[in-house]
Amino acid sequence: MDFSSVVETLNKLLARTQPDVINSSWIRTHAPRCYRFIRQNLRREFGGIDWDRLTYALDWKYQRRWRPVRTRNNRLQYEDHAEVEAIFKKYHDKMYVFIAPSGKHDRRTRDIIGISFVRLAQQGNSLARQELIALIKFTIDNWIERYSFLSRWRGYEDEVQTQLEACIRRYRYTGSFVNYVFRTLECAGRGISPPRMSPLDHSRELENLSQIRT
């Protein structure tokens, strides 16, 4: 059994049984052989099972049914440099994706790295939260320059950080984490007066927006 066969097996099982909710317990109960493969082979850089890699590979209609097993929200905060360095070591030559992603593959890589930091931050590692905020602010700064409805956040750095920290806390599985941040800023910024935009800028913005949502 390999990863492709695990995904194929689970998609067929989900199509046949149509559960309303999917999580690790459901897989362990209904597909124990798949669960054993996942537990042994889908590991995060800092330990634990990489459920995000699995859910991303499932058919989209089943991705939306993923509900992680509930954990305590009042995790103790800690600082572990080794956990953070494990991510940087694995992706040391890919960090440019937060500044200048060149296409769909780079944007996917950006999400993989970002979600790795998100999961560490949700476990309580404050260093992971700080590193992710620093990295994704490069992406947000780029958005502010490209989109008029996000440029209204210019000068509101503290509020942007508050929104970003809330995204890190809330994120479970909603597809792309970066797109989740984008949509959050888009919605939360509607009460801020937008700058004036020329017709040419509007045309460029529509083109840029079509790229980020792919």
Name some characteristics of this structure:
about 210 residues, mainly alpha, globular
Number of strands: 0
Beta fraction: under 5%
- Estimate the mean pLDDT confidence: 87
The end-to-end distance, rounded to whole angstroms, is: 31 Å
Largest sheet, in brief, is: none
Helical/strand content category: mainly alpha
* H/I helix tally: 12
Count of discrete structural domains: 2
* SSE sequence, one letter per element: HHHHHHHHHHHH
Q: Supply Rg.
A: 19 Å
Helical percent range? 55-70%
Give the topology, please:
Elements: H1 3-17, H2 24-30, H3 32-41, H4 51-57, H5 60-63, H6 81-90, H7 104-123, H8 126-146, H9 148-151, H10 157-170, H11 177-188, H12 199-212
Helix pairs in contact: 2-3, 7-8, 10-11
Commentary on this structure:
This protein is mainly alpha-helical. It has two domains: 3-63; 81-212, no CATH class. Helices cover 64% and strands 0% of the residues. The chain has twelve helices and no strands. The chain has helices at residues 3-17, 24-30, 32-41, 51-57, 60-63, 81-90, 104-123, 126-146, 148-151, 157-170, 177-188, 199-212. Helix 7 (104-123) packs antiparallel against helix 8 and helix 10 (157-170) crosses helix 11 (177-188). It is globular, with a radius of gyration of 19 Å. The model has no long low-confidence stretch (mean pLDDT 87).
